[in-house]
Amino acid sequence: MIIKKSLINKSIEYILQHIDEDISIEDVANHCNFSKYHFSRIFKEETGVSVYSFIKRIKIDQSAVSLKVEKDKTITDIGLNYGYSSSNYSSAFSKQHRISPIEFKKAINSTEIANPFCPSEHNTFKSFEHYDEKIVMRRLDDFKVIYERYIGDYREIGVNWYSFMERYKTYIKSDTLLIEKSYNDPSITQLDKCIYDLCITTYEDVELENIITIKGGKFAVYHFNGYVQDIFVTFQGIFNIWLPRSGYKMDERYGLGIYHDIDRKNNYVVMDLCIAIK
């Protein structure tokens, strides 16, 4: 079971790092040192989908993020970046999201968003000036972390966090950072298909199978001090309002949420929302 989980994590990591390339099932299988047939069987057993379907879904979801934040690029250019011709991209995008890329881009609301965590609430974005005033550029060091990867309902992230922390409580010290690494935008990807890593920083002498290094670098950092249910809207405001007008471009590294304090009783957190910047 551990070997299979490690294999799937290794393959997903490779796919995510090369998603804007023309990667094949053979490429992923070779990276994992498995035959195409054997690897494909294990991947589907563990994830419920074929390697091809998984790659296709990730490509379309990532392209939707590009449509959202890269306002200066045409739909055709974004499709080409992910290996699609203009007609093929529109067809594949529409099949996955039940809306065409043109309609998707038009529908992006720059003032408010539906919150999947609090669907009954009205969620309005702040102004560009609000985000710009609070965001600072920082160069973060690499993080050595103990991690677990989750593919499933993003609404269960709180429950997963507490279970994860309980499993690794002996490794949590006073200076340990809790880090969430997100691979999907939950306003785009179906909530039950979101991929994210839950991590705690650790020391060089810790030896576990599930240790990786999160690459540091330049990040736009928004210091968040508020209720858990407001994290989603704040992050979306940074993407929808601040990023397109900021003059900065997203890097291929993925976003991080770095928690500094968690008040579980009141659902209140102090954390940094970090977007990788070129």
From TrEMBL:
SMART domains membership: AraC_E_bind, HTH_ARAC
InterPro entries linked: AraC_E-bd, GyrI-like, Homeodomain-like_sf, HTH_AraC, HTH_AraC-typ_CS, MarA-like, Reg_factor_effector_dom_sf
Protein keywords: DNA-binding, Transcription, Transcription regulation
Protein name per Swiss-Prot or TrEMBL: Transcriptional regulator, AraC family
Domain of life per record: Bacteria
Signal peptide start-end: none
GO molecular function, one term: DNA-binding transcription factor activity
Domain HTH araC/xylS-type: 9-107
